[in-house]
Design brief:
A seven-stranded antiparallel sheet has the order 2-6-1-7-8-9-10. The longest helix is centred in the first third of the chain and has 39 residues. Helix 2 packs antiparallel against helix 4 and helix 3 packs across helix 5. The protein is built from five helices and ten strands; from the N terminus they run ααββββββαααββββ. It folds into two domains: 40 residues; 264 residues, Hypothetical protein YwqG fold, CATH 2.30.320. With 307 residues, the chain is of the alpha+beta class. A hairpin with a 2-residue loop joins strand 9 and strand 10. Bound molecules: zinc ion. Zinc ion (ZN) binds next to loops.
């Protein structure tokens, strides 16, 4: 009897452990496979996939996603006023490198800079927003109305620059009622899939699907890597991408109703981004939401939510 009980207990422990172990191995195999497939893609193939999405987006779009492309050399003069992360931030004479908190001397991390395009109304179109980390919910945000290469000043006293990635715009096609394509289930606990979820894009853009199927049997896995090359794997997380415009996609608490602290009018959602360099500045998976007031565009806010 005791022997039977011992055998039963052993089975109860060993079987789940074996299943978990196998799932872990299967996960690693899937990640390795998508990494190999991504690396074997030519630059032209990747560009063609992104063009498929962007061209469909021109017929109607709610938001833009910024897709990272590695740059070979340090920040060039032309890139310094464009969207990028890593490398050096845009700054002008009189700026200083911010610190992580008022009472600290430790330099903040340069997180991202985003050049707002003409999908934004006045006074936002053409503005450059630069964000540094801060040990608070609010990050350090600087906004330049008319950034210019000739006014760029390289700030001193910052940390060693991280590898630089340019951010290229891809218009995301606005999805019709998702019930029409048989997808009503929520993802990450939200209602419906996001327009830029690789599963949605693959299902609704036949030409994109064909392009991907030439390289893989799992097109959504490979597309996730194409959209977020710095997080090359098959997973899709909010923190991997930069979403420009549209509605904010909250990790949990909805901060709808965020008002300007100067005029108390509702602020406009500008963009959101996560730990793009794969670091843990936002607690591994957090997202920063950037809002601005149309009446006070020089003082946007960047607010972090962590998982
Ligand atoms: Zn205001």
């Amino acid at each position: 009897m005791n022997t039977d009980l011992c055998s039963l207990c052993a089975a109860l422990l060993i079987v789940p452990a074996a299943i978990l172990g196998w799932m872990n191995i299967a996960d690693r195999i899937r990640i390795r496979r998508v990494r190999l497939q991504y690396r074997s893609l030519s630059s032209e193939s990747r560009q063609q996939m992104l063009r498929c999405i962007d061209e469909a987006g021109r017929a109607g779009s709610n938001c833009t996603v910024l897709v990272a492309a590695e740059v070979a050399s340090p920040t060039s003069n032309a890139a310094v006023i464009e969207s990028h992360y890593g490398g050096m931030p845009y700054a002008e004479a009189g700026d200083v490198w911010p610190t992580v908190a008022e009472d600290k001397t430790e330099p903040a991390d340069f997180l991202i800079q985003v050049r707002l395009d003409d999908t934004f109304p006045s006074p936002w179109s053409g503005r450059l927003i630069v964000i540094f980390s801060r040990r608070e919910i609010d990050q350090t945000v600087r906004c330049y109305a008319t950034p210019a290469c000739e006014r760029w000043t390289a700030l001193a006293n910052g940390p060693t620059p991280q590898r630089e990635w340019l951010l290229n715009k891809v218009l995301i096609p606005k999805q019709p009622g998702l019930e029409e394509v048989g997808m009503t289930r929520s993802r990450h606990g939200r209602d419906g899939y996001l327009d830029y979820d690789p599963v949605v894009l693959v299902d609704t853009l036949p030409q994109l699907n064909t392009e991907l199927l030439a390289h893989t049997k799992r097109p959504a896995d490979l597309l996730a890597a194409v959209l977020a090359p710095n997080h090359c794997g098959y997973g899709f997380e909010l923190s991997h991408l930069v979403q420009l415009g549209g509605d904010p996609v909250w990790l949990h608490a909805d901060l709808e109703g965020l008002d300007c602290e100067h005029c108390h009018r509702p602020m406009r959602f500008l963009f959101q981004f996560g730990d793009l360099n794969g670091g843990s500045v936002f607690d591994d998976g957090g997202v920063c939401y950037v809002f601005g007031c149309d009446n006070h565009p020089d003082q946007p806010r960047g607010i972090v939510q962590v998982p």
